[in-house]
């Protein structure tokens, strides 16, 4: 009896010690966090929209069938994949399992199915929230080495999926471990049908069996949706779904469904909209917008030619300067010798809208340079808002041509006062400040509300603004691809 009591007390002491040690470990960097009640109402509401119980399993019907996929790359590639997944799950009558959006510099690169599945399952931040509370003078623990490089955010915090959810079931999954499927949905491996891709453009999905599309497309293998409808397994697991042309739809109803899904991807977060409205008004409501991506990969390699094309599209196409005058202006404003002929693309596209009149420009705008006084150059005094990934745009020689041409050029950093509310946004998931992750969305909204917008060739960010946001904010139907 005495021995049993002693063993019990020792076991209890061990458990108590372990619990205390775990508490001290996870709270060792605690500091005072902002009180949500003290924040402005719209900020508090926006934060509450992302207030989920991350460990809670959803209600499950044993007869439900599911569709899951593996997101990767930057936000706009994830958005395109979500659009395809929402469309596919509706057409296949399956509940879609949606992972949170991953934002930040450290994106999950595409890899073959097995590798990407492993990357995704290890990308959660469970048990690491103490990392967000480490003081600057403390050495960063190994488990926190990339904690600040990315964050996970609910799609519903960014876009309005209420209408979509009213017509098809969606499960928002926060636990990214492999065990979650079995533990929460009761789906075993034997009840899972997996489409394993070995390349970024492995599978394409067609809705019409008689569709004989050209063989010139980039996908390796076609799958007809009717063949997937009758798959008996409860879970249909796919890899990548990125690609605007991944779904080849001919049925009018299916096309309408995809259009509705794509239209729902407009940014609706009230805080982000509020900041963009403040900047829009500060610019006088009439301005040009340009997205100039230079910072990585192909955009760095082709930076000079992309910048030249964007500049030409603004000056020649949008403002209506003739080819001869545009060449003359380029020669005058450029710091180095320029080509004597225009870039090919810039003279192939029609002018986006009517020519800007100086009378449309607000007289209350404070510009960073002296305005053009010659009558034929006054159109260049129109405000130009530039969204770019360049760290120091005022000192970057690649952007100097824009600053010399447009004396009223602005960047997001010029609107620090309007953006102060972003400093109060904190992600409930990992405790990280959201401002660094949300500025690109505010940028997109601001240039989407511009009177005219020009983007970087090949950029999904630019395509989202030009095809989706700009038409949406100007009362036009979105432009669809694929």
Q: Short description, anyone?
A:
The chain is of the alpha/beta class and about 475 residues long. It has 16 helices and 14 strands.
List the helices and strands and how they pair.
Elements: H1 2-26, H2 41-48, E1 66-68, H3 75-91, E2 95-98, E3 101-104, H4 113-121, E4 150-153, H5 155-158, H6 162-165, E5 170-172, H7 180-185, E6 192-195, E7 203-206, E8 221-224, H8 225-229, E9 235-238, E10 247-248, H9 252-263, H10 270-282, E11 288-292, H11 297-301, H12 303-318, H13 323-333, E12 384-388, H14 400-405, E13 409-410, H15 435-448, E14 452-454, H16 460-473
Parallel strand pairs: 1-2, 1-9, 2-5, 6-9, 7-8, 7-10, 11-12, 11-14, 12-13
Antiparallel strand pairs: 3-4
Helix pairs in contact: 3-9, 10-15, 15-16
């Amino acid at each position: 009896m005495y021995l049993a009591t002693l063993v019990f007390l020792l076991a209890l002491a061990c458990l108590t010690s372990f619990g205390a040690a775990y508490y001290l470990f996870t709270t060792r960097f605690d500091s005072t966090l902002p009180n949500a009640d003290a924040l402005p109402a719209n900020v508090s509401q926006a934060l509450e929209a992302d207030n989920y119980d991350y460990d809670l399993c959803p209600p499950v019907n044993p007869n439900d069938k599911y569709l899951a996929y593996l997101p990767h790359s930057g936000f706009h590639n994830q958005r395109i994949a979500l659009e395809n997944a929402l469309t596919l799950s509706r057409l296949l009558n399956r509940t879609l399992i949606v992972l949170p959006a991953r934002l930040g510099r450290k994106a999950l690169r595409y890899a073959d199915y097995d590798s990407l599945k492993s990357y995704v399952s290890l990308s959660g931040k469970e048990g690491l929230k103490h990392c967000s509370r480490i003081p600057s003078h403390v050495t960063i623990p190994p488990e926190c080495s990339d904690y600040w490089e990315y964050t996970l955010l609910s799609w519903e915090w960014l876009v309005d999926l209420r209408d979509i959810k009213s017509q098809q079931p969606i499960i928002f999954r926060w636990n990214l471990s492999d065990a979650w499927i079995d533990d929460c949905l009761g789906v075993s491996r034997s009840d899972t049908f997996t489409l394993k891709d070995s390349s970024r453009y492995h599978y394409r999905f067609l809705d019409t069996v008689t569709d004989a599309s050209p063989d010139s497309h980039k996908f390796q293998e076609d799958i007809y949706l009717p063949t997937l409808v009758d798959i008996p397994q409860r879970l249909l697991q796919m890899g990548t779904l990125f690609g605007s042309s991944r779904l080849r739809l001919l049925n009018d109803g299916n096309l309408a469904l995809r259009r509705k899904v794509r239209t729902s991807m407009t940014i609706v977060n009230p805080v982000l909209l509020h900041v963009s409205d403040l900047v829009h008004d500060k610019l006088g409501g009439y301005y040009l917008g340009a997205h100039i991506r230079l910072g990585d990969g192909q955009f760095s390699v082709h930076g000079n030619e992309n910048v030249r094309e964007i500049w030409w599209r603004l000056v020649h196409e949008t403002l209506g300067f003739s080819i001869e005058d545009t060449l003359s202006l380029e020669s005058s404003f450029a710091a180095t010798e320029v080509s004597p002929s225009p870039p090919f693309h810039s003279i192939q596209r029609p002018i986006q809208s009517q020519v800007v009149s100086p009378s449309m420009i607000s007289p209350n705008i404070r510009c960073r340079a002296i305005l053009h006084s010659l009558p034929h150059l006054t159109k260049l005094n129109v405000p130009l808002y530039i969204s770019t990934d360049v760290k120091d745009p005022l000192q970057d020689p690649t952007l100097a041509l824009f600053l010399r041409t447009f004396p009223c050029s602005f960047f997001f950093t010029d609107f620090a006062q309007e953006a102060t509310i972003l400093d109060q946004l904190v992600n409930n998931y990992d405790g990280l400040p959201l401002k660094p992750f949300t500025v690109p969305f505010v940028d997109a909204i601001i240039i989407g509300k511009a009177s005219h917008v020009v983007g970087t060739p090949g950029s999904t960010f630019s395509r989202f603004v030009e095809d989706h946001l700009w038409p949406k904010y100007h009362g036009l139907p979105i432009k669809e691809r694929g």
